[in-house]
Amino acid sequence: MASEVDNVFRETVRSFYAGFAQGEWRRLVKDPYHQLELNTTLHFLEKYLPSEGLILDAGGGPGRYTIELAKRGYDVVLLDLTPELLAKARRQISRAKIRDKVQQVVEGSIDNLEMFEDRSFDSVLCLGGALGHLVDTSHIDAAVGELVRVAKPGAPIFVSVISRLALFRTALTLFPEELAKIPDVYTKVLETGRYEGGHGFTAAHFFLPEELMELFQRKNVEVLEMAGLEGLATGHRRKLNRVARHHPEIWKVWQKFHLATCTHPSVVATSEHFMIIGRKSL
Q: What is the C-alpha end-to-end distance of the chain, expressed in Å?
C-alpha cells in the first residue's frame, strides 16, 4: 500500500502534467532539438520491434508514440496516470483516425499493471521519463517488474529516462545560479538521483545508465543496447536549432553522426534522456 509520502509525490506529478497537456503533446516536435528524442527513439523502435503485434505504451501521456505506432499498423494500449493527458490522447487519436488500432486508453500507474495478465504484450514501452516520476526506488523497482511481467517471453522492452549527469550540464548552461542557491538539492540528486520537486520541475528520479541496466538485469532482461536520445547535442539546443533551420545540409549530416555516436557509453551517460532496449528472457 502506498504511503502518505508516496501519495503526495504521485499527486505532485499528476498535478504538474494536468496543467501541461498541450505542452507535453508538443514537446517532442516543437523544435529540431526535441525532435532528436522522438526520431532517435523511433529509430530504435523500428530496429527492434516485431513486424506486428500488441504494444503497451506505459506512461505514454498524450499518446505521441501510441499514434506513431498505430499509424505503422501496430495494435496499442495506452496507459497513463494523468486524466488530462489521456483526454488529450483520445482527441489526437480521433484526429489521426486510428481508433481501430488503439485497443484501450487506460488510467493507471506503471508500478501497478494488475489490469493486464502476465505475458500479454508483444512489446512494452515506457518512454519520456515516466519511470523516474515514481521517485522512490522501491516503486521504480516495482514498475520495472510490472513492465517485464506483462511482456511476452522474447519481447523487446524500451524504457527512456532523464539522465542524472546531464542535469548538471543543463543547470550550468540554463540556470547556473541555482547551483549556489540550492546546492543541497543538487547534492542529493548527485548522490541518490532523488529530486522532490519545488524548483521548476515536478518530483523525479534521475538515473545513471548502470543503475537502469542493473534494474532490468535483475528482472532477467537481456540488455541489447542503450542510446543517448539527444546525444552529443545535449546542452546545445539553441545552436542545434539554428543549424537545423538555416543549414539543412549540415543538419542532415549531423543526424547521421548522432546515430553513429549515441550508443557510446559516455554519450549515453550524459545525454538529456537515454533509453535502454532489452529483451525479456525466454
A: 31
β pairing state of 204-205 and 194-195: antiparallel
Per-residue cell: 61: 501521456
Q: Cα separation of 46 and 274, whole Å? A: 17
> Under a CB-based contact definition with an 8 Å cutoff, are residues 120 and 148 in contact?
no
CB of 73 closer than 8 Å to CB of 101: yes
Phi, psi of 151 (to 5 degrees): -85, 145
How far is residue 240's CA from residue 207's CA, in Å, rounded to a whole number? 25
- The identity of residue 228, as a single letter, is G
DSSP state at residue 36: H
- The distance of Cα 140 from the centroid of its chain, to the nearest Å, equals 13
> For the whole model, what pTM was predicted?
0.95
- Type of residue numbered 8: V
Residue 96: exposure state from Cβ atoms within 10 A (0-12, 13-18, ≥19): middle
Condensed to tens digits (0 to 9), the pLDDT of residues 152-181 reads: 999 999 999 999 999 999 899 888 999 999
Relative to beta strand 123-126, strand 54-58 is parallel
> What domains appear along the chain, each with residue ranges and CATH number?
4-280 (3.40.50.150)
Contact 173, 181 (CB under 8 A): no
For 26, half-sphere exposure in the C-beta direction (CA atoms, 13 angstrom radius) is 6
CA 263 to CA 269: how far, in whole Å? 10
